[in-house]
Amino acid sequence: MTLFLILVIAAIVLGIIGAVAEGLFYLLVIGIVVLAAALVYLGMHLRRSGGQRTLR
What we know:
Elements: H1 2-20, H2 25-48
Helix pairs in contact: 1-2
Protein name: Hydrophobic protein
Keywords: Membrane, Transmembrane, Transmembrane helix
Organism: Streptomyces roseolus
């Protein structure tokens, strides 16, 4: 789950820099790709550990 949060934060930072800085539109595109990868990772993580919760 930590990896997901790091990927989302990186995507947000890249997106902001890409949107604000002139000539760095490719960073916005990379941010969108990283966000999509983070969502795919989250989906795979939730599907894999969906019903296997242990009681403590």
